[in-house]
Design brief:
binds 1-O-pyrophosphono-5-O-phosphono-alpha-D-ribofuranose; D-Maltodextrin-Binding Protein, domain 2; ATP phosphoribosyltransferase activity; 236 residues; plasmid; 5-stranded mixed β-sheet; transferase; glycosyltransferase; alpha/beta; 31% helix; amino-acid biosynthesis; binds adenosine-5'-triphosphate; 12 strands; 2 domains; single chain
Length: 236
């Protein structure tokens, strides 16, 4: 029998919340093997194989159709899959893993309150230093789209895959775009979110891959899963 591949985060807070979400719907996800072994089983529904992946790899696996279903953050799907709506279908937003992708500037930039103000800062920075403002982020596509729509063009992206809030202090960027939830990391690093600097309010969501091999058996398993989860079946 062809089996449906379900991709879940391999560790961290998202994994625990995913397992709890399925548990509440009568589906048991159990890690198997050694504590650190990335293997597990799904029971309570037939025909599902578990694939444990880094949250940031799940969008790529969905886009390629190597997994049929996957749970990860909307921010990662929107960032990683160009034209994501054509390649995956969001079955449900799950209400956990909430975080905001925001643009934040040094708190001491008292005159910079909005994205519009950034344009003036960028022009000033260019005039004084002959350089473009540097925005540190791992969300290159989402940040570019957001700033383009708001008419900010005189900047450059500096890639930062972690500890992004530290880049301003380390003088590798003038401002940042990153995920925040409590805001503590921003505050601790003397950064302030622009008043209209929310790029995306993200949460974890269940996605189905359009490119996956949806044979009759996988479709039947999907129908069973959707019924169990109280979701309508996606058109794939
Ligand atoms: N406070 C938070 N900090 C970071 N990510 C958060 C937070 N709250 C929710 N998230 C979400 O969790 C997801 C990232 O999860 P995680 O940190 O496990 O992924 P990752 O960094 O790709 O993991 P890995 O280190 O395995 O590659 C993103 O979708 C993000 O929006
Ligand atoms: O608003 P807060 O509650 O302070 O949370 C936000 C921070 O948490 C995340 O980092 P994480 O610890 O996941 O590590 P990362 O730098 O590798 O993303 C995120 O990148 C922020 O730095």
């Amino acid at each position: 029998m062809s089996r449906l591949k379900l991709g879940l985060p391999s560790k961290g807070r998202l994994q625990g919340q995913c397992i709890a979400w399925f548990h509440d719907r009568g589906i048991a996800i159990e890690r198997s093997g050694a504590e650190r072994e990335y293997a597990g089983t799904v029971s309570g529904v037939d025909g599902v194989d578990l694939v444990l992946l880094s949250a940031s790899e799940i969008p790529r696996e969905l886009a390629a159709g190597r997994i049929h279903l996957g749970i990860t953050g909307q921010d990662l799907v929107h960032e990683t899959i160009p034209g994501w709506e054509g390649r995956v279908s969001q079955l449900a937003a799950l209400g956990f893993g909430r975080a905001d992708l925001v643009i934040a500037v040094p708190s001491i930039w008292v005159d910079v309150e909005s994205v519009e103000d950034l344009d003036a800062v960028a022009a000033d920075f260019r005039a004084r230093h002959g350089l473009r403002l540097r925005v540190a982020t791992k969300y290159h596509h989402l940040v570019r789209d957001f700033l383009r729509k708001r008419g900010v063009a005189d900047y450059r992206i500096v890639d930062s895959q972690g500890a992004t809030e530290g880049t301003v202090k380390n003088l590798t960027a003038e401002l940042i775009a990153d995920i925040t939830s409590t805001g503590e990391t921003l505050r601790a690093n003397h950064l302030r979110v622009l008043e209209d600097g929310l790029i995306l309010a993200s949460e974890a969501a269940l996605f189905a891959a359009r490119a996956a091999a949806w044979g009759p058996e996988e479709r039947e398993t999907l129908a069973t899963l959707c019924a169990r989860m109280g979701l309508s079946e996606p058109a794939l």
